[in-house]
Amino acid sequence: MSIKAETRYANSPQEVKTWTTAQTREALLIEQLFAADDVRLVYSHYDRFITGGIMPVSKAVQLEPVDQLKATYFLERRELGIINVGGAGTVKVDGEAFDIDFKEALYIGQGKQELIFSSKEPGKPAKFYLNSTPAHTNYPTRRITKKEAEIVTLGALETANHRTINKLIVNSVLPTCQLQMGMTELKPGSVWNTMPAHTHDRRMEVYFYFEVPQGQSVSHFWGQPQETRHIWMQNEQAVISPPWSIHAGAGTSNYTFIWGMAGENLDYGDMDGCPITELR
Question: What confidence score (pLDDT) does residue 1 get?
Answer without folding.
Answer: 74
